[in-house]
């Protein structure tokens, strides 16, 4: 039971953060697609966006922590069976996944705060608006938010399929290393 | 001495001309630059309160004849994407296909067809084009005032009210039985062209 990464393994903190992020990203994606089509009299008309935004902001905080944790942690070495293409592809995909999550968070923030209103996170605190005041900001940020989210889910699916390929076809430890630190 | 008299005469003459109120039909441009005008709306929220907003970008012209208002006419056009109810998410929704569909219908327009005087009021009839649908509406208007401004121009201002049923314009998103009608209020000040 080790929390920090080791040269050959991810620690429990990195593993927990990975799966927490995966779960929340998928949940936010589904919730986001669902909530925009709710009709005015649906009981979730206000609560669904409230939940989506609040959880989204908290996810940004988790991702920020995860990024810092990654920076200060030992990076487990790639499996010796992974060739240079596999290593490059895996690494690029991971970086892009991080980038997309942050970009989606920022674009989401820019929708809700487009007209100067703060972004309320549960009833805990409110993020103040940043006065960019771009014309049609909410619409532009909204369509960027959607397309980045679709890109993220697509890339995450490829990332997951690649992990399954390593597990079932190559029969290496790629997926196992992300399931258990031991 | 003669020069002095000449100057005085010219000044007095100019003063007489400019103090003269314009009787014939006069062309005005709505002062959207100085924003002495507004296009406001309100609609009931659930039947419990008024939700108010406005369109930030609009323009137009009018002709006003203070001796024979029936010779007057007006046209106003507005940028539907400029809808502003002071709430980013709601405004985004109002611009979407559920309501104004601003990508497809970027402008709305009112063109008067007749103006009649009714006591102190003016009844402005005309066609409103909104969401791709053109329908006749009637605006109850009143003149607020007219006269010289302190900067060498001449202005006239009006206020008008009307209401429209959203469904008449093909906007059928269900906001509840109390919220099918939108009330529009127009405040305009024109500068003589």
**H/E topology pattern of chain A:** HHHEEHH
Count of individual helical segments of chain A? 5
Q: What overall geometry of chain A do the principal axes of the alpha carbons give?
A: elongated
Helix content class of chain A? 55-70%
Determine the N-to-C terminus distance of chain B. 37 Å
The tally of strands of chain B reads: 11
Strand content of chain A: under 5%
Query: How would you classify the helix and strand content of chain A by structural class?
Result: mainly alpha
Q: List low-confidence stretches of chain A.
A: none
Secondary-structure-derived class of chain B: mainly beta
The largest sheet of chain A has its strands arranged as 1-2
- Sheet bearing the most strands of chain A, described? 2 strands, antiparallel
Number of helices of chain B: 2
| Rg on CA atoms of chain B, Å | 20 Å
Mean pLDDT of chain A: 95
Number of strands of chain A: 2
Transmembrane segments (chain A): 12-35, 50-69, 96-114, 144-164
Protein name (chain A): Cytochrome b
Domain Cytochrome b561 bacterial/Ni-hydrogenase (chain A): 9-180
Family (chain A): Belongs to the cytochrome b561 family.
Please provide a written account of the structure.
With 182 residues, chain A is mostly helical. Chain A has 5 helices and 2 strands, in the order H-H-H-E-E-H-H. Chain A has helices at residues 12-35, 44-72, 84-112, 137-169, 174-179, and strands at residues 119-121, 125-127. Chain A has a two-stranded antiparallel sheet. Chain B is mainly β. Helix content of chain B is 13%, strand content 51%. Chain B has 2 helices and 11 strands. Chain B has helices at 2-19, 88-95; strands at 26-30, 38-45, 49-55, 58-64, 73-79, 83-84, 107-118, 121-130, 133-148, 154-165, 181-192. Chain B is globular, with a radius of gyration of 20 Å. Chain B starts with a helix and ends with a strand. Classes of the chains: A mainly alpha (182), B mainly beta (193).
């Amino acid at each position: 039971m080790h929390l920090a990464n080791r040269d050959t393994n991810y620690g429990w903190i990195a593993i927990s953060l990975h799966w927490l992020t995966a779960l929340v990203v998928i949940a936010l994606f589904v919730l986001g697609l669902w909530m925009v089509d709710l009709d005015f009299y649906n009981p979730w008309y206000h609560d669904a966006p409230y939940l989506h935004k609040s959880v989204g902001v908290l996810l940004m905080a988790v991702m920020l922590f995860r990024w810092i944790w990654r920076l200060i942690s030992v990076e487990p070495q790639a499996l010796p069976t992974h060739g240079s293409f596999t290593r490059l592809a895996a690494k690029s995909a991971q970086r892009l996944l991080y980038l997309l999550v942050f970009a989606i968070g920022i674009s989401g923030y820019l929708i809700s705060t487009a007209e100067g209103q703060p972004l309320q996170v549960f009833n805990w605190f409110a993020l103040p608006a940043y006065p960019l005041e771009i014309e049609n900001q909410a619409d532009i940020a909204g369509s960027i938010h959607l397309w980045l989210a679709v890109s993220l889910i697509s890339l995450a699916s490829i990332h997951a399929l690649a992990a399954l390929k390593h597990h079932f076809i190559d029969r290496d430890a790629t997926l196992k290393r992300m399931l258990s630190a031991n | 001495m003669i020069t002095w008299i000449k100057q005085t005469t010219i000044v007095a003459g100019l003063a007489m001309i400019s103090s003269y109120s314009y009787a014939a039909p006069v062309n005005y441009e709505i002062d959207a630059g100085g924003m002495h005008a507004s296009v406001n709306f309100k609609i009931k929220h659930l039947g419990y309160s008024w939700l108010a907003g406005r369109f930030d970008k609009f323009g137009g012209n009018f002709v006003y004849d203070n001796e024979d208002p029936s010779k007057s006419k007006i046209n106003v056009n507005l940028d539907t994407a400029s809808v502003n109810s002071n709430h980013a998410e709601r405004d985004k929704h109002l611009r979407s296909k559920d309501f104004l569909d601003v990508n497809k219908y970027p402008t709305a327009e009112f063109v008067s067809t007749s103006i009649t005087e009714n006591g102190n009021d003016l009844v402005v009839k005309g066609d409103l084009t909104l969401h791709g649908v053109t329908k006749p509406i009637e605006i109850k208007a009143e003149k607020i005032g007219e006269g010289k401004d302190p900067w060498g121009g001449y202005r006239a201002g009006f206020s008008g009210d009307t209401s429209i049923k959203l469904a008449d314009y093909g906007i059928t998103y269900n906001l509840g039985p109390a919220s099918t009608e939108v009330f529009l209020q127009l405040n305009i000040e024109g500068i003589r062209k």
